[in-house]
Amino acid sequence: MDIFVTIIACVSILILLCNVVGNVLVIAVIKRNKELNNANTCLLANLASSDLLFTVFTCVDIFLLSDQVVYSFAEFIFHALASIYMLVALAVERYCAILKPFVHLTRAVKSLLWKVIIVIWIFAGVLSAPGYAITFLSEQHTWKNAAIMNGTNEMPVWIETLNITYRFVLLVFGLVLPSAVTIFCYSRVIYHLWFNTGADRTTNTTLLQSRRKLTKLFIFVTITFIVTWTPTFGRLIVTLFVDIREAWKFELFSVLLAMAGSTANPVIYSFRCPRFRQEVVKLLAFCCCRRKRLPSITRSFIKANDYSLTDIKRTCTRSAIVPLSISLGVTSSFQLSNGPGQSQ
User: Distance of alpha carbon 110 from its chain centroid, rounded?
Assistant: First the structure.
């Protein structure tokens, strides 16, 4: 058991570090570049935020504090549902962008997207609220039995019924419906790419490669979503009817899978795009060069006292950003015209 716990702890720490680095880079790149001001990147930034919160809270509540957090299950469900619904929103957004481009251009504005994001967080809170109530009632019943010392710890029938009903509701709204919407959206997009009568049926190699890449991406996204989240919600139902020996191992495995899925999201939706990777390199180069080069340039400016503001900016750019960008193979004239979630 000690070896298993050690392995789980090491894996969880590794997943946490990768998750924090990946999602923070996604948020920083999108916030830094004003060109990334579209529907897709707005959802990507909020997906990265929800994935980051989900992984951090999961590691703190379950792996570090463990039984000390009374409402760890409800908090886990809240952040998990928020992350899942962000993925569903991305699937719907891609569906509208490819199959209904004119509607997408006219209606997919930031104000509408922020309303959708607020609704997602509210809906996740509403669905997770019964978890807090059930946990509170269970704790109250346990404390009451411990106080009167009657030796029984059986939950009342109505609490058990409420718990079973709530778990089925979570299965439907946390896995079944999101999976159905995601599969529908991406399958319709794939069908449109290959079999739509109005689509270009040319045998151009570049076009075929683009279609194949998008098809593989959408299939991979759907499979990743189902594989990483099915154990989490399936465990809620299986443990009701099957007495699993050492069920806590199954629980930890499902939690790690969910964390791995949230860690993979930045790679799937953002870092797969070459332009986004270039922006990450430029951001890291800017941060490193600003730390190392800017103080020396500032000192020379104070001593010389004959530089203009334009000269200082030009000096910083030439001495700090350009050499490192050239060594990493990044062109300084790059501009983002498409979001990282769009096809190349």
Answer: 19
- Higher-pLDDT residue of 56 and 35 is 56
Residue with more model confidence, 151 or 35: 35
Question: How much is the pTM?
Answer: 0.75
4, 38, 172, 303, 317 from 161: Cα distances, Å: 34, 45, 17, 77, 66
Which segments within the chain are labelled E, that is strand?
A: none
E strands, 175-257, are none
Separation of alpha carbons 95 and 92, rounded Å: 5
Alpha helices, DSSP H, located in the chain: 2-32, 39-58, 72-99, 101-107, 110-148, 157-171, 177-195, 205-241, 247-266, 274-292, 294-304, 309-316, 322-327
Average confidence score pLDDT of the chain: 76
Angle at 67 between CA 137 and CA 161, to 5 degrees: 30
Q: How far apart are CA 104 and CA 144, in angstroms?
A: 56
Least Cα distance to 264 among 214, 221, 212 occurs for: 221
DSSP 245: T
